[in-house]
Amino acid sequence: MPWFKVDDTAHSHPKLIKAGNAAVGLWMRAGAYAAQHLTEGIVPGVVAQLYGTAPQARKLVAVGLWHAAGHTCSRCPQPPAGDFQMHDYHQYNPRRAKVEREREQAAERQQRAREKAAAERAARENGKESRSNRRRFDDENLSENLESASNQGAFWEDSAGQGTSSHRDAPNPSRSPRPDPSPSTPYGSTPPYPPTDKPGTPGPAEQLLARWWDTYGRTTAQSRNTIGRAIADALANGLEPAALWPALARLGDLNKPVTGGTLTFALAELKRPAPGPGGEVIPFDRAASARPSTTDQRVAAGMDLAARLRAQEGTTA
Q1: Where do runs of H (alpha helix) occur along 154-221?
Q2: Which long-range contacts (CB under 8 A, 24 or more apart) does 160-168 make?
Q3: Rounded distance between C-alpha atoms, residue 185 and residue 174, angstroms
């Protein structure tokens, strides 16, 4: 916004003193109008009539503060007929072109500032979202690692009937969640061998996973990858696919989660011998089976009563 500039000595300038306060008021208001509308010091006649009177305008022309059309001042341009030109307007006030250029530069600075602020705002929001996603991914990875560690750590020897100590009982246990190779495994005496496949690739583990998932996948809350890791770990510990499938089917039938621990207990349950003759068999009580039920007793008593009544009626007759 341009300003209509007035020198600090104007209060005692001879021209303003001669013009008088009323005419100086018109001069001041017309100057502000010219600065606002960038008229280059031109005061339209209608504006002069609006802000003052004709005698006040003539007084400003007479003292040299304004010029009418046809004036002889070499420093000031000619105004249109009926308008006025403020004397030496550009000596204190900027030209229209300069003001417009400064306005354009200010608009460009404001636009750059807005774009910079928007970019910084977007960067902060992206950073917050990135940190939030990173924390969520870290939590998910931690959960999967804990679940994998619990699945793999559940294959200890005592659960499968092995009396030897595991790698966790050694003086310097391995930091790996999987057991170190040893002569004894949680699933038997066969030394563990590297898995022939991983979940998602063709092989025994993927075949068992696909078979189990087709049969029980709709009834489990576990993810396919979690079950695949448990199967791969069991095969890596030396368990044959033919021996592993019954345990997997057992867990699926019982709607139990497939983990290292549950597989171990399922295998132990399947290996438990069936009871022999007389073992865990409830003896059959023949006397109890021959004893009539309450309903039979009531029916028999009713029939006996009816027979006695018929006998009494025959005797009376």
Answers
A1: 204-216
A2: 160/186, 160/187, 160/264, 160/267, 160/268, 161/268, 161/271, 162/186
A3: 16
In terms of Cα–Cα distance, which of 195, 155, 160, 148 is closest to 179? 155
Per the CB < 8 A criterion, the answer to whether 236 and 204 are in contact is no
DSSP secondary structure of 260-290: HHHHHHHHHHHHSPPP-TTTT-PPP-HHHHH
Instruction: Give residue-wise pLDDT tens across range 187-240.
Output: 444 444 444 455 555 688 888 889 988 989 888 888 889 998 999 998 988 888
Q: Give yes or no for a contact between 123 and 115, defined as CB atoms under 8 angstroms apart.
A: no
Q: Which of 85, 106, 103, 104 is nearest to 40 (CA)?
A: 85
Tell me if 130 sits within 8 A of 161, measured CB to CB: no
Residue 313 exposed, middle or buried by CB count within 10 Å (0-12, 13-18, 19+): exposed
- Contact between residue 177 and residue 229 where contact means Cβ atoms under 8 Å apart: no
DSSP H or E run through 36: helix 14-37
Burial zone of 43 (CB within 10 Å; 0-12 exposed, 13-18 middle, 19+ buried): buried
| Predicted confidence (pLDDT) per residue in 40-59, tens digit | 999 999 999 999 999 999 99
- The tokens describing 52, both together, are 């003052």
Nearest CA among 13, 24, 15 for reference residue 63: 15
pTM above 0.70, yes or no: no
- Does residue 154 carry a pLDDT above 50? no
Confidence label for 148 from pLDDT (cuts 50, 70 and 90): low
Is the pLDDT assigned to residue 258 strictly greater than 60? yes
Number of alpha carbons in the 13 Å side-chain half-sphere of residue 249: 8
Cβ(152)–Cβ(233) below 8 Å: yes
